Amino acid sequence: MKKINLNKVFEKGKAMYLAYDQGLEHGPSVDFNDKNIDPLYIIEIAKNAGYNGLIVGKGIAEKYNKEIKKSKVPLIVKLNGKTKLFKGEPISLQLCSVKEAIKLGAKAVGYTIYVGSAHESKMLKEFERIEEEAHVLGLPVIAWIYPRGKSVKNSNTREMISYAARIGLEIGADIVKLHWNGNSKDLGWAVKSAGRCKIVVAGGSKMNEKEFLENVKEIISSGAVGVAVGRNVWQNENPIELSKKIRKIIFS
Asked: Is 14 a catalytic residue?
């Protein structure tokens, strides 16, 4: 196994990722407008605002590969995904292989696991295979760990957030992307629970810019290495200016 170099998707030990996998997960009518529905608009934001990771699925990574490579923003390919249409127990299975992601120029790969779902064992098993293959090739692996399903009564508790972080550590993820509840102490405990596995917090639904920036400050002060933000940036009227503010918080 090659040594895993997180510097491929880190800067000074920190992370500022622009996420753009919402089209598959939420549908084009929920999050997008005439500007941000165009992947080229998102790629330009990532390029001009100095993100150290652009998170997309296989299709966008393929169809816009030339522009992504030209941007010099590290590509992070999301290997699995699901639509919002099926209302049963959540399951998200592989749509892109590690080898395909590498051919597209990926510097890291990501995979979502819905822990608490009746199908969690299928996702955990698939993640194990992906993680092993990626690590043999020296590629960092990011695990989206989201407690969901009928077994999960409240995914925002201290227990659930820290459990998600600990799962990431124990299944071999290099980075865990998780949601948090706005409580700095709870996030701090999740960071400790993750041990040497790094924590990146999801940006979540669109919110007031001031509130969002306060959240980023708390996230970093709690020990997380960064954020993976999407809608709060590319739904903003001035995404570059907002991104500069985020960058100042994370890297200052």
From this structure: no
Single out the catalytic residue among 177, 210, 245, 248: 177
pLDDT digits over 41-80, tens only?
A: 999 999 999 999 999 999 999 999 999 999 999 999 999 9
* Spans of all domains in the chain: 6-251
Considering the candidates 64, 111, 114, 146, report the single residue annotated as catalytic. Answer: 146
Q: Looking at this protein, which amino acid is placed at residue 225?
A: V
Question: Whole-model pTM?
Answer: 0.97
| Residue 103 burial (CB count, 10 A) | 12
Q: What is the 3-state secondary structure (H, E, C) of 130-191?
A: HHHHHHHCCCCEEEEECCCCCCCCCCCCHHHHHHHHHHHHHCCCCEEEECCCCCHHHHHHHH
| CATH class of residue range 6-251 | alpha beta
Known catalytic residue: 146? yes
